[in-house]
Design goal:
72% of the residues lie in helices and 2% in strands. The chain has a single domain, classed as Growth Hormone, Chain: A (Up-down Bundle), CATH 1.20.1250. The chain is mainly α. 54% of the residues are buried. A two-stranded antiparallel ribbon has the order 1-2. A hairpin with an 8-residue loop joins strand 1 and strand 2.
Length: 476
């Protein structure tokens, strides 16, 4: 059982036709670590936006732009990432992403040394590092469905995709807890030089897993010697032809817009959560805890939907049910966060939103592959995520435009940072969420092309195997 051939397991279609390799778990581990480390880098400043604005001598809006860089990079360069993943291979794509991620984290770490770099250079250096890490993100986010399709059998694909894709919010969870825990200056430590030490620790911790992931990416293989399923042994459509075919499918447009909107809402919420909560008296630590609750509940929800989808294959029904509950809980959270001293209600509603909202995400990606088959997996996944990043840019700009400066008697924000009221931003978010939910529930109808192709292939293999048997004595 020491080598891959000895460890291969046959699937249910036909003995010796398909195999599973132990190495699939290493591939999934590398992808998960990359996703996790990249997400930590992405939103490293969001839970401590006030201290970040103070350290880099800038405004909270500029801190939000550090998050916006990720959305812009995915929107502009996502197509290139999908092409490299699908037509140069999984190994090439993950290695490019891994090393961009590591170099970006290292440059960002340099911005924490205020006594080495001029103060005027700190923010530009942070932006350079953030941009390189942002360029890495599409390679990781687009790869989850591809890893699941190329290395896992159909009865485990949804769960494998869930593990790979949920590593991204896991990274956000870790980052949400680490940032307020590590950057916690006393009242006398809120000037640039004094904050420098805290940011060195924070960004150094973020850089470590990116380096480990970059080294592990050297051991990635694009695909196994023998495919795990009938669909995995079929060649995908050429990139341009695949896109043309994909965009002719009405259901894909509905999925791309609606699931993209869900990604955008989550991105904006995690970006501004601390800024929404500190004027109402909620500390950075509680804001980070809320992010952690949302993501932890979301990971549980994603595992639940992954298992359900693998067992029942009812992707559409699961997606519509979870989306309806996600919108209701999102509206509840947007109302609760408007009031001081309701920590329990905020924690409950944000947890419910995470459970249902994150549970929807891997199912959307799997449905995207199903309804566009035989379009390459990274291509169909890419444009759902690119849609989310484009909408996220629009939502974040709209959020900042609708926010108004105000003075709150409950505020625990830094005095040097202006507090903002996000009332109208929240109304805009909730209204948009209800429209998107109705759009998906009413307009989306799934045609499971990949599943049907695998069923037909299984039937053909069984018939072929039976017809090759020698005739029985009774028939001779």
């Amino acid at each position: 059982m020491g080598n891959e051939d000895e460890d291969a397991l046959s699937t249910s279609f036909e003995p010796k036709a398909f195999k599973l390799y132990t190495k699939r778990w290493l591939i999934l581990l590398v992808l998960s670590l990359l996703q996790c480390s990249n997400a930590m880098i992405w939103l490293s400043y969001a839970p401590i936006a006030d201290y970040t604005a103070e350290y880099y001598n800038t405004s909270p809006d500029t801190v939000n732009y550090l998050s916006l860089v990720y959305m812009i990079a995915s929107a502009v360069f996502g197509g290139i990432s999908a092409f490299i993943l699908d037509y140069m291979g999984l190994r090439a794509g993950l290695m490019v992403g891994a090393w961009l991620n590591f170099v970006g984290a290292g440059i960002k770490f340099l911005s924490a040394f205020s006594y080495v770099l001029p103060h005027s250079a700190l923010l530009p250096v942070a932006f350079v590092g953030q941009t390189l890490a942002a360029l890495a993100q599409p390679y990781m986010m687009f790869a989850s469905t591809k890893v699941a399709a190329l290395w896992f059998p159909e009865e485990h694909r949804a769960l494998a995709n869930t593990v790979g894709s949920m590593a991204n919010p896991l990274g956000i969870l870790v980052g949400s807890l680490l940032a307020p825990a590590l950057v916690k200056p006393t009242a006398g430590d809120i000037h640039t030089d004094e904050l420098s030490h805290y940011f060195q620790v924070l960004l150094g911790v973020h850089m470590a897993p990116s380096g480990i992931a970059a080294l592990l990416s050297l051991f990635v293989t694009s695909k196994p010697p023998t495919p795990p399923s009938a669909s995995a042994e079929e060649e995908s459509m050429p990139f341009v032809a695949g896109m043309k075919n994909m965009f002719k499918i009405k259901a894909y447009w509905v999925l791309m817009i609606s699931c993209g909107a869900g990604i955008a809402l989550f991105t904006c919420l995690t970006t501004v959560l601390q800024q929404e909560m500190c004027p109402l008296g909620y500390s950075d630590t509680f804001a980070g805890t809320c992010s952690a609750i949302m993501i932890a509940a979301g990971i549980v929800g994603a595992v639940v939907t992954g298992v359900l989808a693998d067992k029942t294959k009812k992707f559409e029904e699961i997606a519509k049910t979870f989306l309806a509950f996600a919108v209701v809980s999102f509206a509840g959270f947007m109302v609760a966060v408007r009031y001081p001293n309701v920590e329990g209600l905020i924690a409950f509603t944000v947890g419910a939103f995470g459970f249902f909202g994150f549970g929807l995400y891997p199912i959307c990606l799997e449905m995207g592959v199903e309804i566009t088959y035989p379009v390459a997996e990274a291509t169909s996944t890419a444009f759902i995520i690119i849609s989310g990043q484009i909408q996220g840019i629009v939502y974040l700009i709209a959020m900042q435009a609708l926010a108004i400066d105000f003075t709150s008697p409950y505020s625990v924000c830094l005095n040097s940072v202006a507090t903002q009221d996000f009332k109208y931003s929240n109304i805009f978010f909730v209204a948009g969420a209800f429209v998107i939910a109705c759009f998906l529930i009413i307009c989306f109808k799934a045609n499971y092309k990949r599943m049907r192709a695998e069923q037909e292939a299984a039937a053909q293999r069984i018939l072929g195997f039976t017809s090759s048997d020698p005739p029985s004595p009774s028939n001779s």
